[in-house]
Amino acid sequence: MTSPHERHGLIDRQGTCLVLIDIQEKLFPLMRERDRLLENTLRLARFSEIMKIPVVLTEQKKLGGTLQQIRELLPEEHPVEKTAFNAFRCETFRDRIGSLSPRTIVLAGIEAHICVTQTALHALPAHRVHVISDAVAARLPGNRRVGLDRMAGAGVTVSSTEMFLFELLVEAGTDTFRKVLPLVK
Predict the structure, then answer these.
(1) Domains and CATH numbers, the chain
(2) Residue 117 in contact with residue 30, Cβ under 8 Å?
(3) Tens of each residue's pLDDT in the chain, 185 residues
(4) CA 173, CA 29: separation in Å to the nearest integer?
(5) Could you tell me the pTM of the whole model?
(6) What phi and psi, each to the nearest 5 degrees, are found at residue 9?
(7) Do residues 62 and 82 touch, judged by C-beta distance below 8 A?
């Protein structure tokens, strides 16, 4: 059952899961705009902890571990190791998503036009899918844009870190808002 918030195309924190795809030691240094990627990924991780939104991490085999800064924020999350670009081709990932039963999957990570796009397209139409445009990257900027365009054309909602944060917050003046405020200042 969808909430009134969701019926208007907005994300509802109930039934939402954040998936951080392959933000790994060997791949990260090759990304364009990696500082933006890391900053926004850390904001998403902190926000998810405050809002009690489940997070799933993936790691492409042989590309090193998830960046230490992310692991420090999410010490309880055990990354799903995969060899397929589409995370849904990994049984462990499917099981983890299945156990969470999200209506909405929010994606961030690398590379935008490969693993993020393939995972997003596979998730449709079983889930509402949002991709955080300022928290995805690629080695070449043109590939990032092509990935975002293809996902949008297929029905994925392209959003930004701040759009995601404020949609789930819903209103100002709450204790939760005050906890999140440092993430947007």
Answers:
(1) 12-184 (3.40.50.850)
(2) no
(3) 566 566 667 888 889 999 999 999 999 999 999 999 999 999 999 999 999 999 999 999 999 999 999 999 999 999 999 999 999 999 999 999 999 999 999 999 999 999 999 999 999 999 999 999 999 999 998 999 999 999 999 999 999 999 999 999 988 988 988 899 888 88
(4) 39
(5) 0.94
(6) 85, 5
(7) no
